[in-house]
Amino acid sequence: MTVRLEDGFTLALGGGGARGWAHIGVARALEAASLAPRAVVGTSMGAIVGAGIAAGYPADRMEAMARRTPVYRHIRRRGRYALFDSAPVLEAMGRELGNPRIEELPLPLAITAYDLVTGTTTAIRSGDLVSALTRSIAVPLFFSPTHDGAAVWCDAGLWEAVPVSIARQLWPELPVVGVRVDAPKPALLGSPLGARFLRTFARALGEAGDALTARRYLALLAARWADPVHEEPADLLISPRLGMTPAWNFSRIGPMVERGERDARTALREASVHG
Q1: How are beta strands 146-148 and 236-238 bridged, if at all?
Q2: Is residue 109 packed enough to be buried (19+ CB in 10 Å), middle (13-18) or exposed (0-12)?
Q3: Which residue from 2, 37, 44, 242 has the fewest beta carbons nearer than 10 Å?
Q4: Which sign, positive or negative, has the C-alpha torsion 162, 240, 155, 124?
Q5: Cα 119 to the chain's mean position, in Å?
């Protein structure tokens, strides 16, 4: 297989919590191959690293920034309907980048977010960067969802692990290089029996009412987990082998970056990429 990237490509970075540090290693491998994306789409942790890439930061600088901003030191306080509050770490990142607006970044960037109420995904391409990232990284039960009118915004990985379809919708003329770092969806949740259980659980909790309550949030979450996950193949998919590293182990920056770079170099070589 040959993937021609000489005219540019869209880089689609998926979510995966701490496993997403591997995105920095992928960025380093692309730099070494003199391959630069013309646009970036990111989900959750992929949106955070994607923002750094869109801001023009090289991989070395992004890794140094990650080490200067320990996640656990910034997320000690509780969030609403979640274990942690993402605001401190995202605000620290915003300061590092100069608090830009998305449309002001040197490279086009789209940040995905998922509305639990309607079951739809949106691509945020303008406005305050930190606000967009807050929506995108709201991993259910870990970081607080964002309540905006009737919408309840969270991590779009519930719908599509790697935002390939969004990348193609926005820039159809460009090939898509996708990076998947998340752990696979548990087989039970993807089975007919698991989906039936989740739908029953959602009905038991009840989804009626406009107010965002913990009960309604859990009902919406159960209903969306029951839905099939959307998948669209990338022109080149890089899937770093990250072992059993859990999504919450944010201290393993070095190993995740190294594995991301290693497996991205292999994927680029095996795909006979033309740059």
Answers
A1: unpaired
A2: buried
A3: 2
A4: negative
A5: 17
Three-state DSSP at 153 gives: strand
> Which tokens belong to 38?
């013309």
* Strand-pair category, 39-43 with 176-179: unpaired
Give the helix ranges, DSSP H, for 8-150: 22-32, 45-54, 59-68, 71-74, 87-97, 129-136
Two structure tokens written together for 35: 């391959």
- Look up residue 212 and give its two tokens: 């965002």
State how far the Cα of 99 lies from the Cα of 21, in Å rounded to an integer: 21
Residue 85: strand, helix, or coil:
coil
Residue 171: both structure tokens together: 């820039």
Q: How many residues are given for the chain?
A: 275
* Helix or strand holding residue 63 (H, E): helix 59-68
Question: Of 171, 165, 181, which is closest to residue 233 (Cα–Cα)?
Answer: 165
CB-based contact 66:25 (threshold 8 Å): no
C-alpha dihedral, 161 to 264 to 17 to 121, nearest 10°:
-30
- One pLDDT digit (tens) per residue for the chain, 275 residues: 677 787 899 999 999 989 999 999 999 999 999 999 999 999 999 999 999 999 999 999 999 999 987 765 656 555 566 667 777 778 888 888 888 999 999 999 999 999 888 888 999 999 999 999 999 998 877 777 787 877 888 899 878 999 999 999 999 999 999 999 988 766 666 677 777 877 787 777 765 455 566 677 777 777 777 776 788 999 999 999 998 888 888 889 999 999 999 999 999 988 866 55
* Six-digit token string for 75: 């997320």
- Nearest in space to 159 (alpha carbons), one of 125, 117, 114: 114
| Separation in Å, CA 200 to CA 81, 100, 203 | 21, 44, 5
Burial of residue 188, with CB atoms counted within 10 A of its CB: 0-12 exposed, 13-18 middle, 19 or more buried:
exposed
CB 138 within 8 A of CB 144: yes
